[in-house]
């Protein structure tokens, strides 16, 4: 595994400074991203691109979101230390690591076997204490709920009812909703039966799919 040397630390610092200039993100989010070696989560040979504000291809035809998108979803999620956070779409594990760095108790589900295996390996090497599951993100993890926060890192055609049900009262979900282009949507659970939604701009994610994929690339 590539070492986190001074070159990458410098690129990471530049990335967070650019994010700071682009939007008034929660400082805790930027500090967490400044500590996570993003280049370890991209494919070999692409490390030099890891700190540019662009998505990059990873295994199984998926992508690692651009840093601005990671910062925005994390900012909107408003994670507090020790909160239980359910992540739908582990991907390469970068967003997972950022959530853990913020002190959350992270449960993350990935439907692509190649991504699940890769994220497990990288996060273990970084001694990142999270719980990963290979399974169907649409179903969530009701046996472990309710969750203070839920984050979905793929584009959902609508808000899955099982995920709404697993959100604790007073909790929040951040999910990109729509087909083709998505609208970043925040769902706050106010009571057992009442929810409030707000929207926060247009984004582009890979689609959220039901079931699991055992294939590898």
Biggest sheet details: 7 strands, mixed
Name the CATH class: Alpha Beta
Oligomer: single chain
What do we call the CATH homologous superfamily? Answer: Vaccinia Virus protein VP39
Backbone structural class: alpha/beta
Topology:
Elements: H1 6-22, H2 27-35, E1 56-57, E2 63-64, H3 67-77, E3 84-88, H4 94-101, E4 105-110, H5 113-125, E5 131-134, E6 147-152, H6 161-165, E7 167-177, E8 182-189, E9 195-203
Parallel strand pairs: 3-4, 3-6, 4-5, 6-7
Antiparallel strand pairs: 1-2, 7-8, 8-9
Helix pairs in contact: 1-2
Structure keywords:
217 residues; alpha/beta; Rossmann fold; 9 strands; 29% helix; globular
Give me a quick take on this structure.
With 217 residues, the chain is an alpha/beta fold. It is 29% helix and 24% strand. It has one domain: Vaccinia Virus protein VP39 (Rossmann fold, 3-Layer(aba) Sandwich).
